[in-house]
Inverse folding.
C-alpha cells in the first residue's frame, strides 16, 4: 500500500496536475465530492501501472473490512513483496482478499488465527506494544521443557540470546486429554508436550525462541486468539470469514478507535477492484 498525494496521482495517471483536484463520479443519490491537491490517497495497486481511463471514482459509505482467516502452515503472510518463494496467504485467498493486509504476521511454519483488514489505523494500534493486545497460542514441543528455565520464564528472568526477557501473560501446560486440543477438523498432532501461551506483544519468533531457551523445540504453533477474536474449535484449515459486529466493535474499542463510516473509494475498470481509499 502506497500513500500518495492527489496531485501526484493525477500526474501519474496523466491528468492535469496543475488543476490539482479530482471530482469523484457520484452515485445517483449524491452530488459527488472533490478531493484537493493536498489530500492523500492510500493506493493499493501500483499507480504507475494504472491508466487514467481505467479508474472510476465513486463516493460510497462503508465500514472498513475486517475478516478472520485460519492460516495453514507452509504459507507466508506477505503479498510477495519480500521476495519469498513460499506461497502467500493472499495468493491463496484470491480476489476476496484484495486490498486487505494482515494484522501482524505468522511465520510460514505457524498456523491459526490471522486478522485481515484494510484499516491501517486499526492495524497499527492492534500490533503496537503500547496497546498490549493479547495473543494466545497453543504450542507443541518435541520434548519436555526444562523446569528451571520455565520457572525463570514465568518470573520474567529468562533472557533470550538477544537479551530480550519475555513476559508471557499465560504459560500453562495442557494435558493431552484437554478439550482445548479437541479439534477434529484441524487436529493437534506430533508433539510430546503441549502449552497454552499468552503474549501481549509480537516480537520476532518469540514463542519459538523462548522454548528453545527452555531446552526444547517447537514442532507445532497455532494462534487461537487475538484480542477479542477467537478461533472456533470447529474451524477448518484455510477458512475465511467476516467478523461479527460485536467482534468488530470490541477490537476498535480495545485500542481506543471507532470505525470510519465514510470513505471515498477508487475502483478500477469494469471489475470494480478497490485500488485506493481516502477517508472522507
Amino acid at each position: 500500500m502506497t500513500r500518495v498525494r492527489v496531485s501526484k496521482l493525477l500526474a501519474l495517471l496523466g491528468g492535469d496536475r496543475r488543476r490539482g483536484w479530482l471530482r469523484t463520479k457520484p452515485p445517483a443519490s449524491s452530488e459527488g465530492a472533490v478531493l484537493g491537491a493536498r489530500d492523500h490517497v492510500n493506493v493499493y495497486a501500483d499507480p504507475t501501472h494504472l491508466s487514467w481511463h481505467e479508474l472510476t471514482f465513486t463516493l460510497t459509505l462503508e465500514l472498513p473490512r475486517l475478516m478472520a482467516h485460519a492460516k495453514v502452515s507452509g504459507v507466508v503472510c506477505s503479498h510477495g513483496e519480500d521476495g519469498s518463494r513460499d506461497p502467500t496467504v493472499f495468493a491463496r485467498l484470491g480476489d476476496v482478499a484484495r486490498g486487505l493486509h494482515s494484522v501482524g504476521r505468522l511465520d510460514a511454519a505457524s498456523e491459526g488465527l490471522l486478522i485481515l483488514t484494510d484499516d491501517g489505523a486499526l492495524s497499527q494500534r492492534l500490533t503496537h506494544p503500547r496497546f498490549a493486545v493479547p495473543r494466545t497460542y497453543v504450542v507443541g514441543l518435541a520434548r519436555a521443557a526444562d523446569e528451571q528455565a520455565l520457572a525463570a520464564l514465568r518470573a520474567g528472568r529468562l533472557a533470550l540470546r538477544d537479551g530480550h526477557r519475555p513476559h508471557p501473560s499465560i504459560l500453562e501446560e495442557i494435558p493431552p486429554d484437554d478439550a482445548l486440543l479437541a479439534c477434529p477438523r484441524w487436529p493437534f498432532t506430533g508433539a510430546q508436550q503441549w502449552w497454552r501461551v499468552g503474549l501481549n506483544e509480537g516480537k520476532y519468533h518469540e514463542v519459538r525462541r523462548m522454548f528453545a531457551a527452555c531446552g526444547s523445540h517447537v514442532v507445532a504453533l497455532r494462534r487461537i486468539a487475538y484480542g477479542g477474536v477467537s478461533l472456533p474449535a470447529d474451524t477448518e484449515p484455510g477458512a475465511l470469514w467476516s467478523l461479527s459486529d460485536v467482534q468488530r466493535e470490541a477490537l476498535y474499542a480495545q485500542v481506543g478507535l471507532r470505525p470510519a463510516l465514510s470513505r471515498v473509494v477508487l475502483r478500477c475498470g469494469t471489475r470494480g477492484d478497490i485500488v485506493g481509499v481516502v477517508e472522507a
